[in-house]
Specification:
two-stranded antiparallel ribbon, 15% strand
Length: 257
């Protein structure tokens, strides 16, 4: 697995800004999978890429801090520091509320990292909960996902580096582009992670509203369509992965100009 991930980073990395390892795919292999994950993150950093730890963590504050330490910073012990993944960003689940996010955000900020909060996800079942209409909604939120967007805007603040972006971003699925304009209105300073391009049916061409405030405001995520590009192109895997990543990058660059 580690050899596969290194080869993929070497092939497609030059066309990308970040890698997004899905933690469950490593953790299901036990300690060996966690070791492969650490090696993958290290190789991504050596290639100059950001790392988005995709685990969608979320729990009460004590557990949330522990999750965040594992993702960002490790834990200082009497015997020396145990390093976490040192990811620059991580996906988190907000459904347990503000206290969960604040506990994780404190650790992230100490590590110079950021959260990507699930707001309106790319899976078909997102409509079961996230699109539900709220009674007596506050802050202009009509639906559950809009209330979550309000939390992102509230907690994210303003970046201190002059980018205009906060350190709390949002996961907004590319499979429901009709929500993007409203999402950007509610979260003007948030980075959007936009999963669902390719295998899930999302199209880069439909994502322009996410980039209304600039090219730096969105990360378009494609995984299976890049990894498995050789099956469609009937060509050598590394060359196919690079070509597909370059194709998607050019599309994204064009719509966010």
């Amino acid at each position: 697995m580690l050899s596969h991930c290194r080869a993929l980073i070497d092939a497609a990395g030059p066309a990308c800004a970040a890698v997004k390892p899905q933690l469950a795919c490593f953790e299901r292999l036990g300690w060996a999978g966690v070791k492969a994950l650490a090696g993958t993150v290290e190789h991504a950093h050596e290639a100059g890429l950001l790392v988005i730890a995709d685990g969608k963590r979320g729990d009460i504050d004590v557990s949330a801090r522990a999750y965040a330490q594992s993702l960002f910073s490790g834990l200082e012990t009497p015997y020396g520091e145990v390093k976490g993944l040192c990811a620059e960003m991580a996906t988190v689940n907000p459904l347990m509320g503000r206290d969960t996010l604040l506990a994780m955000l404190k650790v992230a900020r100490e590590a110079g990292s950021a959260l990507l909060v699930l707001v309106r996800t790319s899976n078909p079942g997102a409509a079961d909960v996230e699109d539900l209409v709220l009674d007596g909604a506050s802050g202009g939120a009509r639906t559950v996902w809009e209330r979550l967007a309000g939390l992102v805007a509230e907690l994210g603040g303003q970046a201190v580096d002059g980018s205009g972006l906060g350190d709390v971003g949002a996961v907004v699925g590319a499979t429901a582009p009709s929500h993007l304009q409203r999402a950007r209105e509610l979260m003007p300073n948030a980075v959007f992670l936009l999963p669902g391009v390719g295998a899930q049916g999302g199209r880069v061409e439909a994502l322009a509203p996410a980039f209304a405030n600039g090219r730096h405001c969105g990360l378009i995520s494609a995984s299976r369509s890049i990894v498995g590009a050789h099956n469609e192109q009937h060509s050598e895997p590394a060359a196919a992965a690079r070509a597909e990543a370059e194709r998607l990058r050019e599309l994204a660059w064009g719509l966010s100009g």
